[in-house]
Amino acid sequence: MTAIEVDTDWQSWDAEQVRDWQQEVRRLAAEQDTVILAHNYQLPMIQDVAHHVGDSLALSRLAASAPQSTIVFAGVHFMAETAKILSPDKRVLIPDATAGCSLADTIDADQLRAWKAEHPGAAVVSYVNTTAAVKAETDICCTSSNAVDVVRAIPAEQEILFCPDQFLGAHVRRMTGRENIHVWLGECHVHADISPSDLEQTVRANPDAELFVHPECGCTTSALWLTGSGELPAERTHILSTGGMLDRARDTRSGTVLVATEIGMLHQLRKVNQHTDFRPVNPRAACPFMQQITPPKLLRSLREGTDEVLVDPAVASHARRAVERMVAIGQPAGGE
Questions:
Q1: Which residue positions does the secretion signal occupy (predicted)?
Q2: How confident is the model at residue 233 (pLDDT cuts 50, 70, 90)?
Q3: For 4, which DSSP code?
Q4: Given 30, 188, 192, 318, which is the most exposed site by the fewest CB atoms within 10 A?
Q5: Cα–Cα–Cα angle for 41, 129, 311, nearest 5°?
Q6: Geometric angle at alpha carbon 172, from 323 and 109, rounded to 5°
Q7: pTM for this structure?
Q8: Helix 77-86 and helix 313-329: axis angle, to 10°?
Q9: Which residues, other chains included, contact 119 with Cβ-Cβ below 8 Å and sequence gap of 6+?
Q10: How far is Cα 99 from Cα 116, in angstroms, rounded to an integer?
């Protein structure tokens, strides 16, 4: 076996080096009683070596039930925090603790407390793409697949503060018809940059294609407008979480599917359906934070125990309640 060093240029590895890296990662994981979890937006090499691939909440829930004592979460920091919240007795590592999230960074606990003070009595619904401190100030969390059900479970007369994603919030308001939802003006810069013009150009260039759109995207309203105008048939237009995209991909008979989300998702879609051509609406929609988790950093994390994720027990306790309330409403089938 070729010795794989953590400071090598992994992008130039040949097939033998990749295979040696995979074997070393899996050997160390087994030796250290570790489960490796990778988000759908991770680099394909990371996804292929992980024990489990999925959305952040599904992976965190899986981590809580996994028998291993250590979790390596290949994703961004709030995801590893959520795993720690749901697995307080396990060691949780992230290969690069500086891998943040532009969406989670749009609101902090102080801002949420100030917003709550402006709307006393309002229920706070926070997307799982938030920090532990924000979850601790939240009444109930949601995912993109169950946000509508979560909001519908709140009494109709009660005001709602929905954070932090403005596009998901607008989608929930549209689907529920509720006018008493105040939406925080946050966004994931990668999804926001999948623009209406990107969508319209791609749809018109592929008139027979099916369309998968993540509700965090800036083009969600345009997708619904194209459907309403008849330019894109309603039966071929789907607003879906990442988990929902995978479920739909397994069943589709379309020759081409246009995908509006972070491009790492294409790897999983192509794995579950090799007969359909999955094309990105915006091929430049790559999250730089997700791509901070590289093969050498994953190896270093296993060798050196870096970087450990810790959450204050009091914060974790309050945050856990918000997640558990969400789960009590219904199983979050599709996740983000």
A1: none
A2: confident
A3: P
A4: 30
A5: 110
A6: 45
A7: 0.91
A8: 80
A9: 159, 161, 182
A10: 28
Per the listing, tokens 């409403």 go with 329
Closest CA to 94 of 336, 307, 335: 307
Query: Per residue in 116-159, pLDDT tens?
Result: 999 999 999 999 999 999 999 999 999 888 899 999 999 999 99
Token duo for residue 49: 């070596």
How crowded is the C-beta side of 303, counted as CA atoms within 13 Å? 12
Residue from 325, 226, 321, 334 nearest 281 by CA: 226
Beta strands in the chain (DSSP E): 34-39, 52-54, 70-74, 91-93, 123-127, 140-142, 160-163, 181-183, 210-213, 237-239, 256-260, 277-280
Instruction: Tell me which amino acid residue 22 is.
Output: Q
Tokens standing for 188? 């994931």
- The full set of domains in the chain, from first to last, is 9-99+289-311 (3.40.50.10800), 109-187 (3.40.50.10800), 195-284 (3.40.50.10800)
| Cis amide prior to 155 (ω within 30 degrees) | no
CA-CA distances (angstroms) from residue 121 to 134, 160, 165?
A: 17, 9, 21
